Amino acid sequence: MIDAILHTIWTVTKIVFILLPLIISVAYLTLAERKVIGSMQVRVGPNRVGWKGLGQPFADMFKLMTKEIIIPTNSSRFLFLTAPILSLAPALAAWAVIPFSDGWVLADVNAGLLYILAMTSLGVYGVIIAGWASNSKYAFLGAMRSAAQIVAYEIAMGFALIGVLMVAGSLNLGDIVRAQSGGFFSWFLIPLLPLAVVYFISGVAETNRAPFDVAEGESEIVAGFHVDYSGMAFAVFFLAEYANMIMIAALTAIMFLGGWLSPIDGFGDGIHWFLIKTAFCLFLFLWFRATFPRYRYDQIMRLGWKVFIPVTIVWIAVVGFAVYFEIGPWFQIRANGMST
Amino acid sequence: MSFELFVFYVFAAILVFAASRVITVRNPVFAAMFLVLTFFTCAGIWMLLEAEFLAITLVLVYVGAVMVLFLFVVMMLDINVEPMREGFVSYLPVGLLVGAIMLVEMVFLLTQRYFKNENYPAPERAGAEVSNTQELGRLLYSEYLFQFEIAAIILLVAIVAAIALTMRRRPDTKYQTPSEQIGVTKSERLRVVQMPSEKR
Fold first, then answer.
1. A229, A233, A315 from A67: Cα distances, Å
2. H or E stretch including A88?
3. Looking at per-residue confidence, does A340 or B169 come out higher?
4. B65 inside 8 A of chain A by CB
5. Cβ–Cβ under 8 Å, residues A166 and A319
């Protein structure tokens, strides 16, 4: 009994130690986004609140917390208020299986990769329900676009992950990182380059970020699915979007960039490498947003169905061939117990 | 009662409640949401059985993809519920008959000697080192390979048939061919006009 209670307390402590830095990262990612895009557009960005604008996220947060949550007439009140929570919960739950460093993981489950895929696919419910419950045409259009887009890109994403697990021989994220040990040239980025590119772009599409942000395209449908949300309800959507971004960046780091492994074999592996790689992927997100114009809806569908899915299917066949004939140095099956 | 059993009963109660709400709730969108809850709790119960692969696949396939499309359709249709309730009494005898047949079948099946509980002793609990996914994969690709391939062929045929039924060439739609768009050159699109500046 005492053991069970201690175990629970220890698990809750670990959850807090994952979520607290995550929320702070989300807050400062919003600032980083404005600063990075600002300097790309030769502007200064926020610099009024605190030293060089470092207090800006807190100013934004307090402003949103003190605002009223307006519930539109004829909207479905229960679903309207549930939608932000439904979009935040999977974004946070997915962090349970992320290995930050060797053994630093909340739940070391065997089907980790599958769990991640399931959790990221649940995020769309928040968007769809928000769009429907708002009782607004703009919000509804945004929700419909998002549903079609996420179903399309999830297939490409799943196929990209199949390639990873074929080479790694495991669904456990920790084992996937361990299978990449041996320096920069053993990372899955090189043998699985097409899948890495497809995965990252699908990730951008899944998180509804520019250039795939048709779900909230402000030039066409005001603000899409969250047009009627204000105050804290809007802030929760915002939190979920940025938590998802960090999540996709972390997963790209784990599956293709070797997670906590150093680029030079055995030279200072640790959580700092994981953080550096994640930060780099996050910078790519911001860079995309500053660089590319928004895709048109039919172009998004074409890219997802007609380009990404064929590319991943072809590369899965290539990887299957290479794994079967154990073409070195990448495609030897490394995980235990798979050879029998 | 062990904690595991307690969790099972909680999940089972939620499952039965949600499943009954699917058919009793008035709004079809709420019905779809209750179906999502049903799948979710079902996945939780499978998780208790230590079938983690099946549980997560259930969430991934049914909740993550099938129900999204369901909701998509249900929200678009804007169903008027009142006319659908009118036929309730006239359909009641047929419904009761179907329900009774299903009940009788279930009773026959479950009380037969082949399906009695004592013929199916609880399997020994596997240790944490046994990977559900690996075992499933091994069975699918060895013992049940033939059935697995047949299922794959049937699915492929269904996909081809669905596409063949819905795809039609419409000559009047205006769509762009990206490869042609990329292929345009400056000389095709741009005409530089030289003209003298006008005097005021």
1. 11, 10, 50
2. helix A77-93
3. B169
4. yes
5. yes
